[in-house]
Amino acid sequence: MKCCPKCNVDYLDNTLEFCLEDGTRLILSAKNNPANAKTAVLNNFTKQSPIEFETSNETILQNKDTNKLTNIKEKVTYQGFKIIEVAPIVLALTHNYWQWLYLNELNYNDTISFLTSSSFIIWLLLLISGAISSIIALKYGKNKGFAITSLVILAINLLLSIVPNK
């Protein structure tokens, strides 16, 4: 706000330079002069305690979800180990059954026809797969009893197939 020093007329337009009444140069009025205005003090707030948020419930829920996920992973891993542990004994018993049912009942005239027969090839595949799965179960399984038992069964079957029956 500017005012005229001669006629004391106040003008709201700060861009005016001269009085419209008498042409005198305008000056800034003392009541609205920004240089004379006092600055308000804004740092006199009352002290407040910091705001605390209760996040314990959210953390517990997140931990429960994480624990559930971990438990599921452990169960799946444990079931995988169960399969690794049980597979050798199943293969060894299947090998034993195959040897008892097919291999001992067949009579072959020569060795080549015996070694190329489907019964012998299946017997050999069961023996090899049982031995490999037993070794894997010994290395990675938690319960090594099935693996050792299957290796013993396979060894006995191998010895029984080598020793002549009659």
Account of the protein in words:
There is one protein chain. With 166 residues, the chain is mainly alpha-helical. Among the domains are: 33 residues, no CATH class; 83 residues. The protein has a 3-stranded antiparallel beta sheet with strand order 2-1-3, with no helix packed on it. Helix 1 runs antiparallel to helix 3 and helix 1 packs parallel to helix 4. The radius of gyration is 49 Å and the shape is rod-shaped. The mean pLDDT is 78.
Task: Report a brief summary of the structure.
The chain has 4 helices and 3 strands. With 166 residues, it is mainly alpha-helical. Among the domains are: 1-33, no CATH class; 80-162.
End-to-end gap:
129 Å
The share of residues in helices is 55-70%
Largest sheet: 3 strands, antiparallel
In N-to-C order, the SSE pattern is EEEHHHH
Query: Count of helical segments?
Result: 4
The fraction of residues in strands falls at under 5%
What is the molecular shape?
rod-shaped
Mean pLDDT across all amino acids: 78
Residue stretches low in confidence (pLDDT < 50, at least 5 long) are none
| Spatial strand arrangement across the major sheet | 2-1-3
What structural class should be given to the helix and strand makeup? mainly alpha
Number of strands: 3
Rg from alpha-carbon coordinates = 49 Å
